[in-house]
Every structure is written in C-alpha cells, then in structure tokens.
UniProtKB/TrEMBL annotation:
The lineage of its organism: Bacteria, Pseudomonadati, Bacteroidota, Bacteroidia, Bacteroidales. This is SusC/RagA family TonB-linked outer membrane protein. InterPro entries: CarboxyPept-like_regulatory, EF_Hand_1_Ca_BS, Plug_dom, Plug_dom_sf, Secretin/TonB_short_N, TonB-dep_OMP_SusC/RagA, TonB-dep_OMP_SusC/RagA_CS, TonB-dep_rcpt-like. Residues 52-104 form the Secretin/TonB short N-terminal domain. Pfam families: CarbopepD_reg_2, Plug, STN. It comes from the Bacteria.
Length: 1119
C-alpha cells in the first residue's frame, strides 16, 4: 500500500511537470565577429563561449580563410550555418558538450591511410554510449599507424587494418579504449569523469578543470543515487580527499560530523546561495548535477567569514535542450545493526553476579532455588528470562525511496521538475519512530536572444515529519537503548493477561503506540530568480542579478503521555504521571540578493576574467512555545489541558544582516601561466558600525608544466599527459565568537523582582559588560599542490599540503570568575592573542583502464591533519601552569587522564604501591585491581598525576578506496573507507560498572575475560559485586578504558545490470533501464568491535541507536 501511494505521488508530479514544460527555457548563445577566418578559428571562437567541443577529421576541415561571421547573441546553429556554406560538410549537436562535423557524401572515412600489407582485415563497427545511443565523430585509429576513420551520423565506421593489430577509440568527454580487431565490432564508450574540459562550479562562477588552480575536489553524485541512505551526508565518507567525516550512530535521518581538513563546520552553498546543513542533507541525490569541495583560500575567501572552514558547493540540475525525458528511481532497503554485541542470558547474568559476590567474600545473591526458577521459567513474575531486544526491536528496519524527474526544452526554452519521497522506519517494533519526507523542485529558463538576456527561475523545498515516543521516562535514544540493553531480564514485559506489566521501566510499554510522542515537522521553501544579460555593445561583458528567498517553518509537538501498565493479574490500568503537552514553533525567512558585473575576454594568448559585485543577506526568525499540564483526557490538544497550568514563552525574535563587496580577477597566458586574486569587503551586524567592515583577500598562482616545449617528449611518450603546479594564500574574517549585541550594554528584567507596598515591582539587572571594540578575527591559509595524469590519462592524481592559522579569538580576559564576582557581572569579550594552528596533507591517486570489454577505475584518497592551540587565553591557570596538563602547544591527545600500570599482582604489590587514598582506606584493594602511575612521585595518586594521554577523539587520518568495474552491461562499484587511530572511552555498563545496590553487571560475552589468578592478562579487572567496595578504583578516568577506534569498513557497494545493453536494447522508448542491489556498512574491521562497539557509535555505553548495515534493491528507468 505504501509503495502504491508513493508511485501515485510521483505520477502526479510527472503530470504537473508535463503541463508546465512549455514555460521554461535556455540555450547557449554566442557573439562572434570574424573576417577572413578559417573553420578552425570559428570552431575555437564557439568553444570559448560555450560548453561545446568540436569533433572532426582534420583532413575534412580545410584551412581556407574565406569565412566572415557577424553574429551578436545568436545561436550556435546560426554561426555554423554561415560557416559551412560552400563546404561539403554538415554538423550535428550531439549533446551539450559535443558537436560533430562530418562530410555529407560519405558514410565513413579513411584518412592519412598508410600502405597496408596483404594480410589485412576489413572492419565494420558501431560505437555507442552507455545508454546505447550512437556516438558521432569518434576517432578510430589503427594503433601505431596513421590509419584512421571517424564514425558517421549513425555511429558506424569502416576501416582496413593489419591482422593482429589493435584499434584505438577516442572521443571528447569519453574514456579512450584499445581493442583487438574483429570483422564486426560494437564498442560501448564510457564518459570520462576526469575530463579536463569538465565544468567545475567554484565560488560565484565556474571554471574548466584544466584552468583550476584552487584546491577543489569533486564527488561523483551519480554514485549516491542508489546508495541506501536517508540523506546524502551519510554517503560522503571516503569519496573525496579533504573530507573528514565521523558518523554518530544510526537512527532516523542522522547527520554525521563533517569537516573539511579537520576544521569546524563547513559552509554549504547550493546554486550560489548559502544554505543550512539540513537543507544540504535533505537534497535529493537525483537533483544534484555536481558537488565540489572547496578547500583553500583561493576557492573560499570570496565567500567571506562563513567560509573559513571550507565550502561544500552544490549545483542542481536544470533543463537541457533536447527531447522531453523522464527518469524514475526506486530504492527499497532493509537495515539492521551492523556491530551490536550479543547479550548474556538471564541465567548467565545471575551466575556471574554470584561469582562477583563470591570474589568479594559475600553470599550469593541468587540461591540455587532461584537459579533453577530462572532456568526453567517456573516463576515468570519474579524470575523471568526476558529478551528486551526481541520484544522491543525488529530484525530489519524498512525504507522506501522514490524519485521522478522530467526535463526538456529547446535552444530558447528549457525546464526541469522533480519530486521525491522517502519513508524511513526504525527498528522499533511498535512502529512509533519514523520519518517521512517529500522533496520538490521545479525550474527553467528562457533566452531572449535578440537582446542577449537570459531569465531563469526555480523553486524547491521539502516537507519532513519525524515521530518518536515520549513519556515521563523516555524521550531520546539514550533512554530507549539503555532500557533495551540494561533492562531487568528477570522482570517480564507483559503480565499474566498479556498486558504491559507494571514495573520500574518497561521499555516495551514506553515505546508502544499507547505512549506519547515528540513530532517534529520541518517545512522549507526556497525560490530563486536570476537575470543574466550579455551586453551586446561590449563583447565579453555581462550583468547578473539574482535574488533568493527562503521560508521555513518548524514545529515540535511534545505530547508526554505515559502508557497504561498493569499489575500481574489485573486489567485495571495505572499511569506513572499525568499527561502534558507543549507546542514549539520556529518560523522565519531570509533574502540573499546579488548583483554582479563580469567580463571574460581572450586577446590572442591572453585570457582575462573579472568579476565585481555586491551581496546582501537578511534573515528574520521567531520562536514561540506554549505548554499545558494536567490533562484529564488523553487528547493531544492544548485546549484540553488545564488552563491554570499553562505557560507560554518566546525565546527568540531575531533579525540578522550581512553584506559584502566582492571582486575577483583571473588571468592566464596560453592556458599555461595562471594568476588569480580575489577580495571581499565583509560587513557583519555582530559589530558596531565603525567596526563592522573587514577587508580580506586571496591570491593564487598556477603553472601547467606540460604546456612547456621542454615537456613535449614526456607528453608524447605518455610519461606526463598533464602536470599542473599551484599555490595559494589568503585570509578570511571570522565573527562567530562575537555573540549578538555583545558590543552593547544589556539588561534583563524580572517582572516580579521585589515587593514594594505589597505589590510586585519589576527590577533590572545589568548583563555582561559591553565590548565596544569587538571586531573581526582572521584565519590565514596557505596551500601548495599539484595535479597530474600519466600513461594516456590512465594514471592520475593530486597532492596538497595545507596550513591554517587562526588568530585573535574573541575571549573574556583572564581572571573572569574572580573579577566577575567582584563586579557582579561577567567580563566583556575582547580580541585576544589566542592562536590555533592546523596543518596536514591530502593525496588522491587513481588508475583507470580496460581489458577488452572489461573496464575498471580504482581511485584512492587519504587525508591527514593535526591541530593545536599555540596560545589559548581561555585556559585556566591551574592547567596552564602545569606543563604536563596544559593543552596549549600540544596536539592529538585524548584528554588529561590517569595512566594505568596494569593490575596489582598480589596483596604485597598493593602494600608496596601508591594508590588513591580513598582506595587504600576502603581496605578492599587487592590483586586484579588497576594500579596507577604516581607521575610526580609524591607517594600518592592525586589529580596532579593526570597527564595528556591517548589519541584524539576525532581521527586525524581518513582514507577511501573507490573501485568501479563494468563488463557488457554488468556493473559493480564499492567503497572501502576507514581511519587511522582515534581513541574511544568505555564507561558505564560497557565496562561492567555496577551501581551501589550491587546489581547485575556482566551483560555481554566479551566482558567475561576478567582478571583471575589463572588469567592475569585479562581485558577486564577482577569481577566485583559493587565498584564502591574499593572506592571505584577500577573505573577512574584513565587510559585503561581507552580503545583504539581505527577501522576499515566496506562502506557501500552497488551491483547491477544495464538492461539497455542487450535485453532492452531495441526498446527505443526506454532510454535507461538498470536493476541492481546495493548496500552500506557491510562489514567492519576494528579493535572496537572486540568490545561490542562500532567505531562510529554515538555512545560507547551502547546507549545509542546502533550504526546500521543496509541492503537494498534498486531500479532506474528513463523514458
């Protein structure tokens, strides 16, 4: 039923899109003025102003200079119709990237043909793309000779070659292939995703990859379409150098922690406009045209203060000239915990509880009679054997995704429309935790060629609902999974009549349909309009005006209702507390307005690009809530609650503003030497008017070494096909630590501050002292790198070294607490000398080739960084004075903790060693307890013995290996992802820490490796009935409980078959047909799994929603 409903929604969107298809539009226009030019000069002029590249036989294109073209804001067709007059040539616009020039009278061609021996073979062939469409203008060459041919309008070719020789196939934008000859050949060519002519979106414009001298990497977003994730952030780890990502458990629509090169939260830019991380996460992968990771100052500085931590830039799909096409993607998946420790049975837990008591010289807590009852289940009320996981959680959590999009247009108009739907369910057996999201997008453009004006508009957004149970005992994953993993196994979930049993925390009841809920709804609508005017009287100059409007409305309805529970033999319900309801709402809107003037011009070998403009941002949002208690009837409506127990509030009513003047200048000589610079004069309302503006800049240099004459032998021998060196330096301003209105004196009012004359009168209190001198602080960035390709572009890669310094953090002066107490108010923030440094490197290396019809591409990347505080004026005096504990000038440690020295070996060892005074006084330290290092040698263990130990909590090194294989319609891709060492701390139940009542502690099989006289190298200290017996000695904050979280994970895979290769080859109305299976988090290798942990858990106590392994069926269709 759910699938049918989703299909109906998608079909409705398709119908709406078809109705609107005639509205939208865009084409590529050119202004070309040439006199006595050759064909190649005309082609070059078109290529410089469009995305097109020409494919033709050199022999077919003469060098006569007899062409005159005078076209202003005209179409490419108009130019070619003029240029080809009087020539026996014709053209076909194959795609948005390729125009094929062929001879009219020939079906196929031979050129520069060398004399052939008699042992030759005549070859007939057809060349097609991945979708089975013929490719026009493909060059077919006999390897090692000048014998060549080119495919005709039907994609066919003929050529005579020597037996035993090979044929090379090359085509702009596609990977070259070398194949053994056969009399009849069908060759399928794959797009070259590393093509140097690829357009990369960067900053407020775009650039060809060959012209990039910034540190920018791209993510193949088409690989995310079939990955079974609920949002795109979950599929990014390992796909790009520089991206450092750490998941924080599983659950409904989780967003991992994402940084670029180990910085703070990056900036997200969608279609040239800054958007939130949530908006980015909720994008449909099917709607994304390209994703660029902007890492150095030359790429990010132009975006100002919010871009100092890098940018993830998205360009969404738009309409394209050509026939109307429809694409549909379907994905149904099932998820289960990827790494979740088995649990001991109730009987085993009771047994080891008795062992712990025995170790402490105490009587068993469970007698033989009780142990028998647990074993045979004869007393289910008091000594049950309850499996809370099986009762509360299902084995697999389902998810369904549907996406449909339609695009089309012609040279004057185009349009694009899409609709997506995702329904995600959790592991909760009750079905009370779920997420539903609907995405929509529609847009298009029109081209008024007569005046050189392009008009485009789009609207997109999403509607999302998330539901989670809510009672007086549970509201989050922590409470739920604590109940699942630590629930009392001896207590039943249901009473004698099959109703929820009334016990302390019956987690099955707490997450049931009878419980309350927290229901979060998000509604976002984003609209954008843009005018692009190519000035007809100044060639190369354009004006771009755009305005983006974002509206959002979020609401949270929190219905705290306890489920009905029952005594053992009763049908009379009881409730832990009376229900209450709270409504919260947050609504607002934001404008981003941009006005730019640009200029792009080529003078011989000199290429110049300039940009100047203004950007303004305004945001307003409001936040309100209302709450009522004492609900007599369990109806979740505010008016049902007690009006006398109502409270209301408005936490925020905020207006924000930013503005900036922006400039950029790019120059290159002969596509060989590059110089670029940019500035941003940034304004923020976080500061007073005379401190509000800051000027920041960046500069970069690039050198394409392979364009030099001395490199020609290396290029001809394929030692280097390309080699580019680049470097950049820049500054960006930051205002994030300033705080709103910190430059103004603030007061708070208490309406009932004092009683005067028997009546309440308001009072005022002064806030923190004002900081009128607050202003920008800066991050300086340095980057050096190179990009290369070799061996016929089969081997390719890049390397970057980066260094960041942030200075002038806004902090309160030292002695804040003392002075604040004396003055009665907090001290103001000032611009300090605090400095933080971050440096590292990243590598990417790939190899792509083919063995006949078998194609493969292997791409690996690695990122490493380190960071430290060179000076931090926020550090307290006690740690700053202790060289072993201060955090300044030190990098990559876990925390300041105690160092363990293993276990006490005997009572004599205890007697002759130093320890915590509390542990000594307890009289219960003995062999098998943990011994600690007296670091300062004062004969006792105190806080002064704590040291910087362990590895950082965030991995300093992350890597990924992407493997793509294909063979005659079959395709397989996989991503292996992992990290270097980082440390995880095991607290709580995962470390067998018991409470003061001496409750059962041993819950998992991996905890059975405890210290015993015959097992002195155990993972765990001696088994105890109560950790307080030795004053918690074994669970002090120490490196004993640190676990190496480094891991190797098969992050995802895709396996499928392209039906268009053979089975549906002749179904012409079907342009795309793929079926397959995919998965995520298939297996993990890590020391952490030995302790029942996933290295990316949100809780090392196993109180978080587990990371999930997902398997999916996928279907991709095109019409």
């Amino acid at each position: 039923m759910e699938i049918n409903r989703n299909l109906r929604i998608c079909l409705l969107a398709l119908l709406l899109a078809i109705i609107t298809q005639s509205v939208w539009a865009q084409g590529q226009t050119v202004s070309i003025h040439l006199q006595k030019a050759s064909l190649k000069q005309v082609f070059n002029a078109v290529e410089k102003q469009t995305t097109y590249r020409f494919s033709y036989r050199s022999a077919a294109v003469d060098s006569r200079r007899d062409i005159s073209v005078n076209v202003t804001n005209g179409t490419v067709n108009q130019v070619l119709d003029i240029a080809l007059v009087g020539r026996n040539l014709k053209y076909k616009i194959v795609s948005s990237k390729v125009i094929a020039i062929t001879e009219k009278e020939a079906a196929s061609h031979q050129l520069e043909k060398t004399p052939l021996p008699t042992n030759h073979i005549h070859v007939n062939g057809l060349i097609i793309d991945e979708g089975g469409e013929p490719l026009i203008g493909v060059t077919v060459s006999e390897r090692g000779t000048t014998n060549r041919a080119v495919t005709n309008l039907e994609g066919r070719f003929e050529i005579e070659v020597e037996k035993g020789h090979s044929l090379e196939f090359s085509y702009i934008g596609y990977l070259s292939q070398t194949l053994s000859v056969k009399p009849n050949m069908t060759v399928r060519m794959s797009p070259d995703n590393h093509n140097l002519d690829e357009i990369v979106v960067i900053g407020y414009g775009n650039s060809k990859r060959r012209d990039l001298i910034a540190s920018v990497s791209t993510v193949k977003t088409d690989e995310l379409t079939n990955v079974p994730v609920s949002n795109i952030t979950q599929g990014l780890a390992g796909r790009s150098p520089g991206l450092v990502i750490k998941a924080s458990g599983g659950g409904i629509d989780p967003i991992p922690y994402i940084t670029i090169r180990g910085g703070e939260v990056p900036l997200y830019v969608i279609d040239g406009v800054v958007r939130s991380q949530t908006d980015f996460a909720n994008l449909l992968p099917e709607d994304i045209e390209s994703m660029s990771i902007l890492k150095d100052a030359s790429a990010t500085a132009i975006y100002g203060s919010r871009a100092s931590n890098g940018i993830i830039q998205i360009q969404t799909k738009t309409g394209k000239a050509g026939r109307t096409s429809v694409d549909y993607d379907f994905n149904v998946s099932m998820a289960q915990p990827a790494n979740w420790p088995e649990q001991l049975s109730a009987y085993d837990r009771a047994y080891y509880a008795n062992v712990a008591r025995k170790n402490d010289g105490l009587d068993p807590i469970f007698s033989d009679e009780i142990m028998q009852k647990i074993k045979d289940g004869s007393d289910p009320q008091n000594y049950n054997s309850t499996n809370w996981r099986d009762i509360t959680l299902r084995k697999w959590a389902p998810q369904i995704k549907n996406a449909i999009r339609i695009t089309g247009g012609n040279e004057k108009t185009n349009f694009f429309a899409s609709l997506g739907r995702i329904d995600q369910n959790s592991l909760y057996r009750s079905g009370t935790h779920w997420m539903k999201r609907t995405n929509f997008r529609i847009g298009g453009a029109t081209n008024l060629q007569e005046i050189g004006l392009k008009i485009s508009a789009s609207i997109d957004g999403y509607v999302q609902s998330v539901n989670h149970p809510y009672t007086s005992k549970i509201s989050s994953y922590r409470e739920v999974f604590r109940g699942v993993n630590d629930g009392n196994l001896f207590s039943p979930a249901y009473n004698n009549l099959g109703l929820f049993y009334n016990q302390n925390t019956n987690i099955a009841a707490e997450i049931s349909k009878d419980a309350g809920f927290i229901r979060t709804k998000k509604n976002v609508v984003n609209g954008k309009g843009e005018l692009l005017w190519s000035l007809p009287w100044i060639k190369g100059m354009y004006v771009r005006l755009s305005s983006n409007y974002r509206f959002f409305y979020n609401s949270i309805k929190s219905w705290r209702k306890d489920p009905a529970t029952y005594a053992w033999d009763s049908e009379e319900p009881s409730y832990a507390s009376i229900s209450q309801l709270q409504h919260e709402s947050n609504a607002g809107y934001a404008f981003t307005n941009q006005a730019f003037v640009g200029y792009d011009k080529t003078f011989g070998h000199h290429n110049i690009s300039a940009l100047f403009g203004y950007e303004q941002y305004y945001e307003k949002n409001e936040d309100y809530w209302a709450k009522r208690e004492n609900f007599t009837f369990n109806i979740p409506q505010l008016e049902i609650g007690d009006a006398n127990a109502q409270t209301n509030g408005g936490k925020d009513d905020i207006e924000l503003g930013r503005a900036a003047w922006i400039g950029q200048l790019k120059y290159n000589y002969a596509n060989k030497y590059y110089v670029e610079g940019s500035f941003r004069y940034d304004g923020s309302d976080y500061f007073r008017k005379d401190k509000r503006w800051g000027l920041f800049f960046s500069g970069s240099l690039g050198w394409v070494v392979t364009e030099e004459a001395f490199m020609k032998p290396f290029v001809e021998r394929n030692i280097f096909n390309s080699l580019k060196l680049r470097g950049s330096y820049g500054e960006t301003g930051l205002d994030s630590d300033a705080g709103r209105w910190a430059y103004m004196t603030s007061y708070s009012m208490n309406p009932k501050g004092q009683i005067v004359g028997g009546k309440y009168v308001p009072t005022f209190a002064e806030g923190a002292l004002a900081s009128p001198d607050l202003t920008w602080y800066t991050t300086r960035e340095l980057d050096f790198g190179f990009d290369f390709s070799s061996l016929g572009n089969r081997l390719y890669g890049s390397f970057d070294y980066f260094y960041y310094v942030t200075r002038g953090y806004l902090v309160a002066p030292k002695g804040k607490s003392y002075l604040g107490t004396a003055l009665g108010v907090g001290m103001p923030k000032i611009k300090s000398d605090s400095e933080r440094r971050r440096a590292g490197y990243e590598i990417q290396l790939g190899w792509r080739s083919n063995i006949g019809a078998f194609k493969y591409d292997i791409l690996a990347n690695y990122t490493h960084f380190d960071a430290l505080w060179a000076l931090d004026e926020r550090e307290g005096e006690s740690s700053a004075k202790n060289p072993y504990q201060r955090w300044q000038q030190h990098k990559g440690y876990f925390d300041v903790i105690y160092r363990n020295l293993g276990y006490y070996r005997s009572a004599e060892d205890v007697y002759n060693s130093v320890a915590f005074l509390s542990g000594i006084n307890s009289g219960n330290l003995t062999a098998g307890d943990i011994k600690y290092w007296d670091a300062n040698g004062d004969g006792r263990i105190t806080e002064e013995d704590m040291r910087r130990l362990g590895k950082s909590k965030l991995p300093r090194g992350q890597w990924g290996i992407n493997i793509s294989l294909s063979y005659k319609g079959f395709y397989f891709s996989t991503l292996f992802q992992g990290s270097t060492r980082f440390d995880m701390y095991i607290p709580g139940s995962a470390a067998m820490r018991t409470d003061q009542s001496g409750a059962v502690s041993t819950k998992f099989p991996y905890q059975l490796d405890t210290w015993k006289p015959d097992n002195t190298n155990a993972h765990y200290p001696r088994l105890m009935s109560n950790t307080n017996r030795n004053s918690n000695n074994n669970y002090i904050y120490s490196d004993f409980w640190l676990v190496n979280g480094a891991y190797l994970r098969m992050k995802d895979f895709q396996l499928g078959y392209d039906l268009k290769y053979s089975l549906a080859k002749r179904v012409h109305w079907l342009t795309r047909a793929r079926v397959g299976v995919s998965g995520q988090n298939i297996f993990t290798i890590s020391q952490a799994t030995k302790y029942g942990l996933d290295p990316e858990n949100s809780s090392t106590e196993n109180y978080g929603y587990p990371v999930e392994r997902t398997l999916a069926f996928t279907l991709n269709l095109g019409f």
